[in-house]
Amino acid sequence: MVRTLSGAEFNAEVAEIRSVIVNEVNELGETAVFTAAEKGHVEVVKVLLPYTTKEGIAAKNRSGFDALHIAASKGHQAIVQILLDHDPVLSKTVAQSNATPLVSAASRGHINVVNELLSKDSSLLEISRSNGKNALHLAARQGHVDIVKTLLDKDPQLARRTDKKGQTALHMAVKGISCEVVKLLLQADAATVMLPDKFGNTALHVATRKKRSEVYHSFIVPPLYRYKPTYLLHCSD
Where does each ANK repeat begin and end (predicted)? Predict the structure, then answer.
């Protein structure tokens, strides 16, 4: 004889089945909430989140991204906010090469996501990739002016942080094409123009090697030794 489930038992069984389905991973290691976060489906994330376990939310795909990290890298600020409100610890998860959600968002130019992450935990600025590059290094290299300004406003000392090659964000900036980023970095700490990397190269060496004439003009407008940002008049985008 088949026993009839009580209302409470039925609800418990449905909840268990729902949890199994929602937290199932595909061959790429992705859960349903991960896919919704990646695609920017805010309402779907809201529906799935109550049924997603802590392990399901933190689950990483083959590339080492969890739901928060993929949302940050795609620039989905609303989803980042929802996930951080649900579990603030997610902000410090790392993907391959020790990349944090902040590093990924900064390198891709997602200023709203950067602001959201820093509003929850400014200590994220201290976490670098395995090669020593932090969010400022990567934003400077890509020429993301607004993000560079935001990061420097949070911590001007970031301008002096070096990666494992001994390079500062200024070294990275002169490899790019944004003179505005170069200006911001020199305004934060003009003396970085004289800091050599582990191979003895200053930012001017790097700019010259890369033939960034629009950038290295900013270093040679006299008098260089005073390190004053007002001498960057020849640096224009």
Answer: 63-86, 131-163, 165-190
